[in-house]
Write a structure and sequence with these properties.
Largest sheet: 7 strands, mixed
Number of strands: 12
Radius of gyration: 16 Å
CATH architecture: 4-Layer Sandwich
Distance between the termini: 51 Å
CATH topology: Metallo-beta-lactamase, Chain A
Number of helices: 7
Bound molecules: zinc ion
Strand content: 25-35%
Shape: globular
Structural class: alpha/beta
Number of domains: 1
Length: 234
């Protein structure tokens, strides 16, 4: 039997892995159907993504679809490793796709300490692989075989293009939710973020488990408290 020690099973076909201690401690999501699986975010570069891919392959040998929650380096710089593994569909919010194209090269310096090849743009798996499929206003349903995931946006928040990945009972929110660390505002729409958190706060019945971009899984009540804290800080 394969070992799934790195993964926390969240129910249904959903898993999360905190990856990696040496780098950004970003949450990597995995939703496994009977015909394909979705990987949510890909890490900081080829070193990190190779570890993530190896961990994914302890769970499933199925073809992979990638969803990037937003245009920050720790969430999409590993895409090339997944393309090299055969993935062809890379989903993101349309605004995130624009952001990756516009700022991807400038973001390389952010990984100089942990992914020198990615920082230099030299070597295998260091291409910036941009989204091939985009989500705009309406939700997109991906059929994975025996289950489906819904990709959708709740509006600008942590960035202009935050993508929600909804699996049965589990919602991967990217950095719109941040557990154990302060929210990051450099590309944020603060008022939009509060509105989005209020929407998340009402989605508990559909998604009892919410997975932040960093930190432990939470519930809808956490989104409400995050909105309260953000409002109080204005
Ligand atoms: Zn971010």
């Amino acid at each position: 039997m394969p070992q799934h020690d790195q993964w926390q099973h969240l129910g249904g076909g959903s898993y999360v892995m905190r990856s990696s201690a040496a780098r950004a401690l970003v949450n990597i999501g995995l939703v496994v159907g009977s015909e394909r699986a979705v990987v949510v975010d890909t890490g900081c570069g080829p070193r990190h993504a190779s570890e993530i891919l190896a961990a994914v392959r302890t769970v499933t040998a199925l073809p992979l679809v990638v969803a990037n929650t937003h245009a920050h380096w720790d969430h999409f710089f590993g895409n090339a490793v997944f393309r090299n593994d055969g993935a062809t569909d890379f989903w993101a919010h349309a605004a995130a796709a624009r952001g990756m194209a516009a700022t991807g090269d400038a973001q390389r310096e952010s990984v100089s300490g942990v992914e020198p090849e990615m920082a230099a743009g030299e070597g295998p798996g260091t291409d910036l692989v941009l989204p091939t499929r985009v989500v705009r206003q309406g939700p997109v349903v991906l059929d994975l075989g025996n289950l489906s995931v819904t990709l959708f946006t709740l509006g600008p928040a942590h960035t202009e293009g935050d993508l929600m990945v909804g699996a049965p009972g589990v919602l991967f929110t990217g950095d719109v939710l941040e557990e154990g660390a302060d929210p990051q505002f450099e590309d944020a729409d603060r008022a939009g973020w509060i509105r989005t958190l209020r929407k998340l706060a009402g989605m508990g019945p559909e998604y009892p488990v919410m997975v932040p971009g960093h930190g432990n899984p939470v519930t809808a009540g956490f989104a409400a408290r995050m909105a309260d804290a953000m409002e109080a800080a204005v």
